[in-house]
Write a structure and sequence with these properties.
Length: 126
Amino acid sequence: MTDQERKLRILNKLKNIVYFALGITVLFLGISSVIAAHWSTPAILSNIMWILLGLFIIGEGVVSVTKSFEALSSKGKITQAVDWILILFGIIFGNIAYLMDKNSWLIIAIIILVTSSIPIKEDFEK
């Protein structure tokens, strides 16, 4: 893998992390706003639009991640899958901790997200 390909893979991974973080956060905030709307129809409709937007952004991230798996060997796919599971766990755990107002949990989730986002040496091409 050339240096340029490695840089492109890291930039794509960062782009996907932003997609997932933005989409999951919008999804969580939209759901919590629907719950807090107390059956107010305009508030529920506007929050459903935000939820759909969040799902669309998450879908874009999923498509991009699955495309990035195509050029990897089976060992590389397993490594990347575990890496993405940890990243998604950190994002979801952080959103849950934020909604529950648990600052210590939020710090732990941020640590999980940051440490799982650090690129490792990848030589798993086919």
